[in-house]
Write a structure and sequence with these properties.
By secondary structure, the chain is of the alpha+beta class. 45% of the residues lie in helices and 8% in strands.
Length: 509
Amino acid sequence: MTIGPRLELRQGQSLVMTPQLQQAIKMLQLNNVELLEYVEQELSENPILEREDTADSPSADETTPVEQTTPQEGEDTGIDVTTSDDATMLDGGDLDVDSEDIWNAGNEAETDTTDFSDSSISWDLGGGNAGGGHDFDSIEYGIEQSVSQEVSLRDYLIDQIQIDMSDAVDRMIAVHLIDSLDDAGRVTESCETAAENLGCSVTRVELVLDKLQHLDPSGICARSLTECWAIQLRERGRLDPAMEAMLANVELLKQHDYPALAKRCGVDLDDIKDMVDEIWALNHRPAESFEHVISQPITPDVIMRSRPGGWSIELNNETLPRVLVNHQYYAEVRTAVRTKEEKNYLVDRMQSANWLVKALHQRATTILKVAEELVRQQEAFFSKGVEFLKPLVLRDIADAIEMHESTVSRVTSNKYMHTPRGIFELKYFFTPAISSSSGGESHSAEAVRHRIKTLINEESPKAVLSDDKMVELLNAEGIDIARRTVAKYRESLKIPSSVQRRRSKAMSF
């Protein structure tokens, strides 16, 4: 057998992404602040594009008007599309990378102007909507490369809670507390205020805060400098009664009244000196090592407001760019074109401008659809509180709005919604679920955990339930759960095993 070069013809299929398709995917994943920077770059490179608010912007009759579409008469979509003199909610197609006809690179956009400053969508509680892809997450986006690659304190803490906290409700409470940290790494919001905003008990917020205070860096999420010291001393095994007494009399420490401090702590002056040195050696600002990271305040991309009978959802008009295609400039330049290269350049800039306007339109429509369905699915959370968070996955939203999961993933990544309960990242509304053995509606992990606790509280001292027995009872209720999952939930509730409970109840009986 000889080995040598040869020519072969092979037939295959592959997905070829045009530059316009890459641009659309890029814009979908950007939040409003990043999108504004991206559009500014496009404005600087494309003379056909124009800011709408500039003084030399063409008049309305020099641009193609935006096509307005509304539901057909008699059609019940459950969505109230609101329009005004200044803005209209446009009805665009889904931004699905599998829809090749939508993203045909050679087509010019039918719409040459776009303004989503007042784009909004509102719906009634009883309303509803109708309802093979490829992953392009490997694409590198230039706008992201301009941001510091260092890990921020927020991301560093969230990475830890994803591992340490299995409960979705606890994670949401944790993120809310992390977002209230100041420059020193201390929580600025009280547990009572957080519980009121999230609609849960103060005890639960305090338990989550205690878990946060065990994260790295040591001393993070304290409510005061004294508590920051206490956390670090506890981790080092140095929070003895004498040190607790010193922290309880921190005013004497500030005044350097060491004799009085020694008397309060029950030690001599030499010990006080060593204790003071130990205090000053602690990290007083746990977040200080992260101060080199670019600090960006959270700017919501979507705003949710309460209205009679439901909710109103709209894009944040303060951060959305407003661009249009300058037809007057295009007409003037076209008459002065002399060479083929100049003509090709002008046509390319015109097509790029039209595509950008169309992509902005599609992005706004897609974000509103996803946000509207998220609020619809998690209505109980917004109405009753964080403990009513519903199990939800990307496919649930994708199926409801007839989009691809990858599209929903990009829309919910790095985008925030301002709600009556605070600002939340869209992806945090997705929570794991326990499937139903009867094929019915799935159960949230929190609901199953609460059911396990109820079964144990109601058990008889003469018939203590084992983990296997609880699996049988839960299966009979339509909850498909494994024994190891029951054991994990029981341990997370700090409930001892059946053997320990039987022994404890026998002694008390």
